[in-house]
Write a structure and sequence with these properties.
Blueprint (H helix, E strand, L loop, with lengths): L1 H29 L2 H9 L4 H19 L4 H21 L5 H17 L1 H8 L4
Helix pairs in contact: 1-3, 1-5, 3-4, 4-5
């Protein structure tokens, strides 16, 4: 029973963080006026902005699949690291990308016991 509850919880958490990344990627792929203005403030043209949306969806796809979930976690964390660096470079608040990245890591820690044991292993 506990195993089933754990699976339900981690799929719900995965779904919630996935909605955040899907919303972000769709904002990049639909290329509306407001998102293009934001991208141009960061020095990103529309073609690059679209590619970022495709990259974000590809990383999310890897994260959702259990077999490739750890790779997807690392790729999404790297993606969010790039977002944080871009925000720092342009004097924007880094609060939102830091929160998303923290939640991503917490979900990955919960979802993947092998990741948890590797990172918390005290044998060195």
């Amino acid at each position: 029973m506990i195993m089933k509850s754990n699976k339900i919880v981690y799929w719900v958490l995965t779904g919630l963080i996935s909605l955040v990344f899907i919303g972000s990627a769709l904002g990049k792929l639909t290329v509306n006026e407001e998102s293009l203005k934001m991208a141009s403030n960061f020095g990103i043209d529309s073609a690059t902005f679209t590619m970022l949306g495709i990259l974000e969806l590809a990383c999310l796809f890897l994260f959702i699949i259990p077999r490739t979930g750890i790779i997807g976690t690392m790729l999404l964390a790297a993606y969010m690291g790039g977002a944080i660096a871009t925000h720092v470079e342009h004097g924007e608040s880094i609060l939102a990308p830091c929160i998303v990245q923290s939640i991503l890591f917490l979900i990955a820690f919960y979802r993947f016991p092998e990741l948890r044991s590797t990172l918390l292993d005290s044998k060195s």
